[in-house]
Every structure is written in C-alpha cells, then in structure tokens.
Automatic annotation (TrEMBL):
Domain (Transglutaminase-like) ranges: 111-178
Keyword Signal annotated: yes
Keywords for the protein's UniProt record, in alphabetical order: Signal
Species in which this protein is naturally found: Flavobacterium chungbukense
Signal peptide bounds: 1-21
Name of the molecule in the record: Transglutaminase-like domain-containing protein
One Pfam assignment: Transglut_core
Source species, domain of life: Bacteria
Length: 326
C-alpha cells in the first residue's frame, strides 16, 4: 500500500479510536463552567465570573481552559487559507509595541466574538483571560507531531502555538487548541469534543507531541532528535499513562523475519492488545508477558507489515512506529 494511503489510514484510525472511545474525565470545575453562558459581553465579564467562582490559581486556569474548549471552535477554513501577516511601519520601539499590542487585542476580540480561531487565537485569548485573573501566562510557538508522517522528519517547523501558565511556582503546559476537539476527515469538518488531557500535561508526554522554537522548557534544553524520531503517541496514551518503554525510537530498522520487542507500562493481560496489518486486519499479539508493571510482547516483521505499525489497546490507538527495511 502506498505510504500516503497508509498515513491517511492511521490518521483516520487515530480520530476514530481516540476521540470516540476516549473516556473523558470531567472535573468539578468543568461541570461549573459548562453551565456558563456561551457568550459574555466582554472578556472582562468572563474573567470576573471565573475569579468570583474559583479561589485557587489551578481552578482558575482550568476554568479558562474549559470555557474556551467548550465555546471556541477551530477555524479549519482559516487554517487552510491563512491570511498574510500584517505589516506596519513605526518610528520608535514604543510605537512598534503599541501597534503589536493592538494587533493582539484585535485577535483576542475576534476570537472571543466570532467563537472561532486557529491556535494563535486560542492562545492569545487564554493568555488574556489568565492575566486578567492574576495568572502569569505566556504563549509558546513551535512544532507539533500529529500523524505517522511526522515520525522521522528531518527538521522542525513553527506550525503551532500553546500556553504555559505559572501555578504554585511551576510552569504548567496547556494546549487548549487540542483540548476543544478534532478534525473528522470522514465528515470533512471540525468536531467539538472536550479533551482535558492537554491541561497541565506531563512534560514527557507533552514534548513527545510538541517542540518549542526555543528548544527549551523551564531552563532545560529539550532533545530535537527525540521529538523528530520518537514514536507518535495518542491521547489515550496520555490519559491512561501508558508509558512506552520499548522501542525507544519511533523508527524501527528491521529485516523480514525480525521480531520487535514492545514494552508498555500500566497494561496487563486483561487488556486486548493488537495491531493492524497492511490489509487493515487486526492481529492480536501472541504470548504477552506481564513485566515490571506493564506488558511485553513481540511483533513479527514480515510481508504483512506495512510502512507503519500502530499498537491498539482495547480499541484505542496508543503508539505508532515507522518501519524501515535494513
């Protein structure tokens, strides 16, 4: 099967298994915010409501995440047809900063009023509301890993944006764009499907799918090679804390007849574990062994394996690897 078709297949499988079988964890904060009006007269009114209803920084940060994810839709048409960057002239640094602030303020109001945006609008609105309720918040720009075709890319690109917010003296990672829903390729449209896993995400999981332009987080340098060459993980992997212990690379070099050992934490024999062959048929793993709080099993590399292999646990896609012939 051609690579493009395989890539599309697994991207579609990701959509089906992650978003329709995903067990959503709705917090008490989310339940309260779900009853908020879909529209407020101003961002100030929304911020006042959040500040009144919640006392802690963590709750307020989560409330902002929830309201945006519940009410702002991803503008897929704008993503496909991006506007040209606004150019402007200035005679001093002060004038430059005023004009940049005006552009950002316009983006925030457009997102808030139209209820749709791409990641720049999501992150700008999140930062604005966070700052209004007294939180220190920044926007981070960088790369994202979203499909099997991203495994083994040669370089990163600046194609996404997310937030970091300071809670209890620690920077927390937040991607509200990914928290609001997903693109359903079978329907050709965005689907709202609240996803809490991208609020205060574990950095190990977050940076498997994100890489900042700065290459750093909280003063620590991140590995670009690990990001580019690591496996593709999915939302259920993060939610269930399915740590991928082996293989440690997303690129598997193998000959026909080789057996690849896979080890995943927090899985047991009671789970159904399988992968799809290149004819899209499920293949149940044979003789799995419980080991060190997880499950270890082998996958035979033969003519039935395609260019990529995706592991499923109980119908949910967990991790994808790229197969390269030795």
């Amino acid at each position: 099967m051609p690579q493009k078709k395989i890539s599309f297949l697994f991207l579609l499988l990701n959509i089906i298994s992650v978003h329709f079988a995903f067990s959503q964890k709705i917090s008490d904060v989310d339940k309260i915010v779900a009853k908020y009006p879909k529209s407020f007269n101003s961002t100030e009114k929304l911020a006042e409501k959040i500040e009144k209803d919640f006392d802690s920084d963590s709750e307020r940060a989560r409330a902002i995440y929830s309201w945006i994810a519940f009410n702002i839709k991803y503008d897929y048409n704008a993503y496909l047809n991006p506007q040209r960057s606004q150019g402007f002239s200035y005679s001093s640094e002060a004038e430059k900063q005023r004009k940049l602030k005006q552009i950002n303020d316009n983006l925030i109001q457009k997102t808030f009023n139209s209820k749709k945006a791409v990641c720049e609008g999501f992150t700008a609105l999140y930062q604005d509301l966070a700052q209004q309720v007294g939180l220190k918040c920044e926007i981070v720009r960088g790369d994202s890993k979203v499909s099997v075709r991203d495994i083994g890319r040669k370089t990163t690109s600046s194609n996404h944006a997310w937030n970091i917010v300071l809670i209890d003296k620690k920077w927390r990672l937040i991607d509200v764009t990914w928290g609001q829903g997903y693109y359903d390729s079978s329907k050709g449209r965005m689907v709202n499907d609240f996803n809490p896993v991208y609020f205060d995400t574990d950095p190990d999981y977050f940076f498997a799918k994100h890489f900042p332009d700065s290459g750093t987080f909280s003063g620590n340098r991140l590995s670009k090679s690990d990001f580019l060459n690591g496996p593709l993980i999915y939302n259920t992997t993060i939610e269930k804390d399915y740590k991928i212990k082996s293989p440690d690379s997303g690129i598997i070099e193998a000959r026909n007849g080789d057996r690849i050992t896979v080890e995943i934490k927090n899985v047991s024999k009671s789970n159904q574990v399988f992968y799809l062959n290149k004819r899209n048929q499920p293949v149940k793993v044979q003789n799995p062994k419980e080991k060190r709080g997880g499950l270890e099993f082998q996958i035979l590399i033969d003519n039935n394996i395609g260019d990529y292999v995706t592991i499923f646990i109980d119908t949910n896609s967990i991790v994808s690897f790229k197969i390269v012939s030795k």
